[in-house]
Specification:
By secondary structure, the chain is an alpha+beta fold. It has a domain of 101 residues. It contains 13 helices and 18 strands. Strands 8-11-18-14-15-16-17 form a seven-stranded mixed beta sheet, sandwiched between helices. Strands 5, 6, 7, 9 and 10 form a five-stranded antiparallel beta sheet that branches. Strands 1-2 form a two-stranded antiparallel sheet. Helix 3 runs antiparallel to helix 4 and helix 8 runs antiparallel to helix 9. The longest helix is centred in the first third of the chain and has 25 residues.
Length: 454
């Protein structure tokens, strides 16, 4: 066999191989390449407009925030699902779900129909998580985990972006995050499973993971804020009461969001043990010297105080709210007393009142203690309570129902002023001056809520 015949044979073989390969490719369908999760999500949210009504824009911003999270090298899928469920809950409102828009692929549709498409994206992730329970509640691997659960860096706290009149939530969040013992409980890996998956409590736990692991950063809290406005039963992008929001969030963490399949009593006792105060109130008849039928012991997460004209300090406010009031015209003595206090002591100053049928703000300065705050005088029989140290204080400037909220928070012995995304260090002598005069930078910066710990 000469060289020419070898070359001809080889050429014939190549032709045969190419023909067979081409026929096989026509018979066998091309292998399906699985679209990455992040790309699936991006393709989906392209169908939702970025412009439109206020509600449409809010949902769009929240969807885009989740997109940034899911594009991380190792995204926290539980956090992704929680955020999407919060968006779905907001979108389920009767005023939102029927809003319509034009989708590039599906044409005219409404928000509710888009959320049904979103369910098709969420369900496979949930099944994946159910097959990997160890992923629940775990921080994203590429974020450094604090050496101790709940431990706070002495560096500047992470700032929180103002997504539109969300300063009331930002101030409350910064104050609550400063409570390290609470963080220790919430950041245990199993704790998040104690709450329903779409609850604001689960969302808050995911938020504090990011905050405590990202000192000096700026966090976008939009998905959480959507839940916050729902919690306040308020329209998005509206200013609300920061103290009321903080109080409601603590109550949710204690009981209302608890998964009863995990805790049949419906109460997270670990958190209740940190906050719940026992307050006694009742009346005694002066004529026959017997208690009336109105003797009540109530468990509260905080005390709400009315400011009287003579009050100059927070302790005076408390003492004037927890005291005997003699009503001789009615033959009664009214009694208010603190029976039991916990590790945290939260007090709210009621700054708004009606004067001549108009809601006005009481801007009376109220000085407060930074350390060694003794509330034993509020108890029956002068029971001794361990002294408290101030951890945070919420400040309000402006008119009722509006204005701006900020917070002073303490990390170990360092004080910081939290004004949304802007965090500044407060020198010790300046903080002492603020506490002594009873207001912030101006007389309009009035304290509305105090967070003390033993």
């Amino acid at each position: 066999m000469n060289i020419k015949s070898i070359i001809k044979g080889a050429g014939l073989l190549v032709v045969v191989v190419l023909l067979v390969s081409g026929i096989n490719s026509m018979i066998r369908p091309p292998s399906r390449t699985e679209i990455p999760l992040a790309q699936q999500y991006t393709n989906l949210i392209k169908e939702f407009p970025q412009k439109g009504s206020e509600n449409i824009v809010l949902i769009s911003q929240a969807l885009l925030k989740v997109e940034r999270e899911i594009k991380q090298p190792q995204p926290d899928l539980f956090s992704v699902v929680t955020n999407l469920n919060e968006i779905k809950e907001f979108a389920s409102s009767s005023t939102v779900k029927n809003e319509s828009f034009i989708s590039p692929r599906y044409g005219k549709m409404n928000v509710e129909q888009f959320m049904n498409l979103l369910d098709g994206f969420i369900d496979p992730i949930v099944k994946k998580l159910q097959g990997s329970p160890e992923q629940f509640g775990q921080p994203r691997p590429n974020i450094p985990v604090p050496p101790k659960p709940g431990a706070l860096s002495t560096q500047k706290p992470a700032g929180l972006a103002n997504v539109g009149n969300s300063c009331f939530m930002n101030a409350a969040i910064q104050s609550l995050v400063s409570l390290e013992r609470l963080n220790e409980v919430l950041l245990k890996p199993a704790t998040i499973n104690l709450y329903t998956i779409n609850s604001i409590s689960a969302q808050y736990i995911n938020l504090i993971k990011t905050i405590t692991a990202s000192p000096s950063a700026t966090i976008d809290p939009l998905p959480f804020c959507l839940s916050g406005w729902l919690l306040m039963q308020a329209k998005p992008l509206t200013q609300q009461d920061a103290a009321e929001f903080a109080q409601l969030l603590v109550q949710r963490l204690i009981s209302q969001d608890v998964n009863r399949a995990k805790i049949p009593t419906g109460i997270n006792q670990e958190i209740a043990a940190l906050f719940m105060l026992t307050i006694a109130s009742g009346e005694r008849n002066l004529i026959i010297n017997e208690p009336s039928t109105r003797n009540i012991e109530a468990n509260e997460t905080s005390v709400r105080l009315t400011i009287k004209q003579a009050d100059k300090t927070l302790l005076q406010c408390l003492q004037n709210n927890f005291k005997k009031d003699e009503l001789p015209d009615y033959g009664l003595i009214k009694v208010n007393a603190l029976l039991g206090a916990r590790y945290y002591f939260l007090s709210i100053l009621a700054r708004t009142e009606f004067v001549e049928q108009k809601l006005v703000k009481n801007e009376q300065p109220i000085s407060f203690a930074l350390t060694n705050f003794d509330i034993s005088s509020l108890s029956l029989g002068k029971r001794n309570f361990a002294p408290y140290q101030l951890k945070a204080c919420i400040i309000h400037n402006g008119v009722p129902g509006g204005g701006h909220y900020t917070a002073y928070v303490r990390r170990e012995q360092n004080w910081f002023f939290c004004n949304d995304s802007v965090i500044t260090t407060v020198p010790p002598q300046e903080m002492q001056a603020i506490a002594h005069r009873g207001y912030g930078n101006t007389v309009k910066d009035t304290p509305v809520m105090f967070f003390y710990e033993q």
